Every structure is written in C-alpha cells, then in structure tokens.
Amino acid sequence: MLEVTIEIDGLAPGGDAVGRQRDPPDDIGPDDGRATFVPLAAPGERVRARIDRAKGRVAWAELTAIERPSPDRMAPACPLFGACGGCQWQQVSIDAQRAAKKSIVERALATAIAPVVAGGPVLGYRDRAKLAVGEGGALGFHARRSNEIVDVPACPLFGRELARALPALRELARGLAAGVELDVQAGAEGVHLNVAHADATGAAHARREIDRLGAAG
C-alpha cells in the first residue's frame, strides 16, 4: 500500500481529519495536493498515512505516524478510543472541536455564524445510544470501519442515566444473538429501550428481562 505525507488542515463532517497530500519536495508526484481523509489525526499535524482507496482527487487513508504533532492533540478520555467507532474526536481539544463544528456549519450555510456555545459538559452528555450485540453476548459499538463489535463496559460520553442502565443492558445482551441492536434513550421517565433484529427466541428473552427490569425500577 502507498504511504504518503499529509498536512492536516481540519476536521471533516464525517468525523475524519482531512488534509492535503504533500509528496517530498524532490519527488513531486501527480497526487500532490490531493484531499485525503485520515481518521485519528488532528488539525495542524503533518502525518504519514497509508492510502486505502482513492477516487479522482480524493483519497482515504489510515494514520501510520505523526511527524509533527498538533498543539490541539490531547490524550483520549476513553481507553477504547481508536478501536471503538462510537466517537471520533477524542484526540482533539474541545476548543478545536468547537472551532471545527462552527466552520462546518458556516460552510454548509455559506454565511458566518455566532461563536459556538457549549450546550452541556465535555463528557457525560449523551442521553441516547444505539448499541449492538456481538459474539458471546458482548455489547458495545461497531469497531471503526468494521462490522466487529467492541465490547464497551463503560463509556465516558454516557450521561448519568445511561451509565446507570449499562450493566443491566449488558446482562440482557448475554441472552441475545449477535446482530441484535439495543437502541436506548434516557428521558424524564427513565431509560427507554427498543430491541431490533431479534429472532423469536431473542425477543422472548428480551420481554422477560424487560419485565424484570421494569419491576425492579
């Protein structure tokens, strides 16, 4: 696979970082300047990345090395970050994240907007999640760019009610087949659960467990 140097310009709406391919000065090639999406990179970095696929003047790559770290790079709050596909920007400071979101909205609307104002805490803000059951009753999110399920015993982005419900959801998942999805929403009346893609056996198990959990509060 071709490995290239990329100057990262910013963060893209899909969650990847994006920059321009820069071949070495003494070896300028036809793809110099090509827009390239690189997960896990940060704005302002120079990175090495392996090209996975390309279409015209756009390419998608995997980060292999950081040649010049960004001042906005930070240690992720979650040990599963990078493998788990549940979130994308934990490697970037919150100020850089907000600046990127402001820029994305301005480009979409073709007009300047007011500064971004935080609507909640940096962590512990999610009140909804779509979790998937993996092999052996694992429960979590799809791995980054994969159909594999990363088992998630805890998530720092979950709000208090979702975090409180997660152990019970993991217990429920142990009796369900791989591929079943648990769509959970925390609200004023508690945590609402929707079980999707379950067969008859899994649905019966879910009903028994949900009745038991409801009776227990």
Keywords:
217 residues; five-stranded mixed β-barrel; 10 strands; alpha+beta
Structure description:
The protein has 217 residues and is α+β, with helices and mostly antiparallel strands. It is built from 3 helices and 10 strands. It has helices at 94-109, 160-173, 200-216, and strands spanning 3-11, 17-21, 35-38, 46-55, 58-68, 128-133, 139-142, 149-151, 181-187, 190-196. The chain has a 5-stranded mixed β-barrel. The longest helix has 17 residues, at 200-216. The chain is elongated. The mean pLDDT is 92.
Overview in brief:
22% of the residues lie in helices and 30% in strands. It is built from 3 helices and 10 strands, in the order βββββαβββαββα. The strands form 2 sheets. A 5-stranded mixed beta barrel has the order 1-2-3-5-4. Strands 8-7-6-9-10 form a 5-stranded antiparallel β-sheet, covered by helices on one side.
